[in-house]
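Priority: medium. Attachment 1 of 2:
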């Protein structure tokens, strides 16, 4: 069995792992590159494999850095099955078409305003293609064995978001685990990840390999930010990921309101995608900690702005209010229009809700840049910029170390670190080498591992 690292190495985006046996070829994850321009350019490069011989894709979860390249392969002719958890299918049915729609809108905007280097800018894929690829998805429940050619597989819960899985496969007498994105033991919404079975090799995420999550109380931090922004008469802008983070923020705001710890400001969820995702979370009580009453409370405190006109109407508001909108890293979506008109106002607070990949607009804003480029124009940054600690869906290096120690891994299990910036992966390697008996190395782009 050979494993080729086609993405998710040296970066937290573009996860793709090509597994090849004598008779079977599959991809585990098929993610979109995001962030730095040189990374995004990889999305335009053909994968070094024959799509006609690719038997299937196994998807760990719905986030675009793991699923967002699937429509590209569909556009190029891939028609094999895509196996994943039912909740992931529900989320992908929202995220993938939305990704295509955003790309279409961006291409049209750049073309209309002639701010692209290309005479006729084209999206990587459109909404129609993203919708069409959904016909390939096949549902697999957690802990239910299935087979692709001569490869036996099972998905087990990884926490993180709804449907997120670690992928366990067996072939050629070897058992290999793909951690996917590993959730936190004390996540506000999701349950902890399930321990791993015995493995010969583990591909392990290292997003927070060089950082520990802040121990500051996230509720207290959010209350302070809401109260101070309202006192200034400003607007609280929350760029938020539609899956997981938005639901957590809504739940926290509802809790703070119920305890009379923040004023009753108007709260707007300005994301049709997040609105649809919210409904999916409330449908899957068995997969998360939220009760039906908590979902109702979250819904009651928020006004949904579904149409473009409703979104534009928010610019007429003069009283303090809160806007939650995608995208979480400010790379696209409706949050950009709100940032353009409000980021230059000192009364505004921009509150990010989690990890920001290097090179993204959100990372640049958080780094303290004086100006930020949005839709081809530079905008001065005078707003207060904060990060809400404690909402990351990824376990930090201590969380993951404890997860590994609670698993049934043999000390001779080999670990290859993926899904991390270089500094994070190297720090994670050092930590695991010091605190475990595993052989740990950092995976390299296009490396081929032969088992």
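Attachment 2 of 2:
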């Amino acid at each position: 069995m050979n494993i080729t690292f086609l993405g998710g190495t040296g970066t937290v985006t573009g996860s793709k792992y090509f597994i090849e046996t004598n008779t079977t070829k599959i991809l585990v994850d098929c993610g979109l590159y995001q962030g730095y321009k040189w990374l995004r350019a990889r999305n335009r490069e053909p994968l070094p494999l024959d799509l006609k011989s690719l038997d299937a894709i196994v998807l760990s979860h719905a986030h675009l850095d793991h699923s967002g390249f699937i429509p590209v392969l569909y556009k190029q002719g891939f028609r094999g099955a895509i196996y994943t958890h039912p909740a992931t299918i529900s989320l992908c049915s929202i995220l993938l078409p939305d990704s295509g729609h955003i790309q279409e809108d961006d291409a049209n905007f750049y073309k209309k305003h002639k701010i692209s280097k290309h005479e006729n800018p084209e999206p990587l894929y459109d909404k129609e293609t993203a919708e069409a690829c959904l016909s390939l998805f096949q549902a697999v429940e957690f802990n239910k064995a299935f087979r692709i050619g001569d490869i036996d597989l099972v998905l087990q819960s990884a926490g993180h978001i709804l449907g997120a899985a670690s992928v366990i496969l067996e072939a050629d007498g070897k058992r290999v685990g793909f951690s996917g994105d590993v959730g936190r033991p004390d996540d506000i919404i999701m349950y902890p990840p399930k321990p791993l079975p015995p493995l010969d090799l583990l591909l392990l995420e290292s997003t927070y390999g060089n950082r520990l999550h802040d121990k500051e109380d996230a509720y207290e931090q959010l209350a302070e930010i809401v109260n101070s922004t309202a006192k200034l008469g400003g607007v609280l802008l929350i760029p938020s990921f539609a899956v997981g983070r938005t639901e957590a923020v809504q739940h926290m705001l509802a809790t703070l309101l119920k305890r009379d710890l923040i004023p009753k400001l108007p709260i707007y969820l300005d994301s049709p995608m997040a609105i649809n995702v919210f409904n999916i979370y409330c449908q899957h009580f068995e997969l998360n900690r939220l009760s039906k009453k908590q979902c109702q409370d979250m819904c009651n405190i928020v006004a949904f702005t579904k149409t473009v006109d409703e979104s534009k109407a928010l610019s007429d508001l003069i009283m303090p209010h809160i806007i939650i909108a995608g995208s979480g890293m400010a790379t696209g979506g409706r949050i950009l229009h709100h940032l353009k008109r409000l980021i230059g106002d000192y009364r505004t607070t921009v509150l990010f809700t989690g990890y920001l990949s290097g090179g993204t607009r959100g990372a640049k804003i958080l780094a303290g840049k004086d100006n930020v480029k949005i839709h081809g124009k530079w905008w001065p940054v005078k707003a207060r910029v904060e990060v809400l600690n404690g909402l990351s869906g990824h376990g930090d290096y201590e969380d993951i170390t404890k997860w590994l120690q609670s698993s049934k891994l043999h000390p001779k299990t080999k670990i290859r670190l993926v899904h991390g910036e270089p500094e994070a992966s190297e720090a994670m390697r050092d930590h695991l080498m010091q605190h475990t008996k595993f052989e740990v190395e950092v995976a390299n782009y296009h490396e081929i591992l032969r088992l």
